[in-house]
Amino acid sequence: MLRDKIVNKQAGILTYGMTPPKESNPPEKVAEISQKQCERLKNLDIDALILYDVQEEADRVEQERPFPYSPMIDPTVYSHYLEQLNVPKILYRCVGKYTEPQLTDWIQADRGQDRYSVFVGASSGKQEVTLRLSDAYRLSRQLNNRMLFGGVVIPERHMKKNDEHIRVVDKIKSGCDFFVSQATYDVEATKDFLSDYYYYSKESGLEMVPIIINIAPCGSQKTLEFMKWLGISIPKWLENDLKYSHDVLDQSIRLSQKIFEEILDFGLEKGIPVGCSVESVSTRKVEIEASIQLVKDIKSIIDKKLLVAL
């Protein structure tokens, strides 16, 4: 069970992440989309499905967004369309756009059931918020002991500020049970963060919680530009390999596998509970199907590595 793996701080958690459909879709279209997604995902051996809560982030960067922003269906609402998928749902919550009463009601709903969430803070210091991350942590701890909540970790930010491990440890002390990274293409940045996380936790006498590394296939130049706009750090050599590849998607998949395998090996050597989340940042069918295959490939890698580690 997902709860056991998180509570016992196990390596190898595997999830699939996706964004709900656009809010502008009529109900029958949403039902059609969700049915297709259920068909794609029903046989995947995953621990949970992640549903993102999207915010516009227009004030985060000055460059024009490669794909126009459209409000998405609330992940809680969309999770009901996916009930036939018998896996836990980890629901993202961009807490800054909710009032305290709104978040309180959401946290207290279904209190008798296991719940999972990732609380996300403001996308930039310029963003106006009605609720802070610390408030969301406090409310969740006080109001629902069946909810395990996580945070977002950005290893690339560690390259500039060298304090991502301290942010993570502070969030653990505030109640975070696990973390999901931003999509990862920079192995060195991730290993630098994990190394500091390991040694800082060891010095502090703090048990490490799972770090779920997010990987996302890239199938086109447009997707690559969108990833960069999102703030995903893509090393120049890797960007060149993708840009000049005859098959960008295939190259991206192979690179993603190598990246995660190297990070998993690094984590297992130090006893860091590393997991993986696969997502498709594109709505193109070929990229979505590639991400599904990537989940299966990553599952094989995880099973093999954990067996050797035992």
Characterization of this structure:
The chain is an alpha/beta fold and about 300 residues long. Strand 1 (about 15-20), helix 2 (about 25-40) and strand 2 form a beta-alpha-beta unit. The two termini are about 20 Å apart. Helix 4 runs parallel beside helix 5, helix 10 (about 235-245) runs antiparallel to helix 11 (about 250-270) and helix 11 packs parallel to helix 12. Helices cover about 50% and strands about 15% of the residues. It is built from 12 helices and 8 strands. The protein has helices at about 1-5, 25-40, 75-80, 100-110, 135-145, 155-160, 165-175, 185-205, 220-230, 235-245, 250-270, 285-310; strands at about 15-20, 50, 90-95, 115-120, 145-155, 180-185, 210-215, 275-280. It has an 8-stranded parallel β-barrel with strand order 1-2-3-4-5-6-7-8, surrounded by 5 helices.
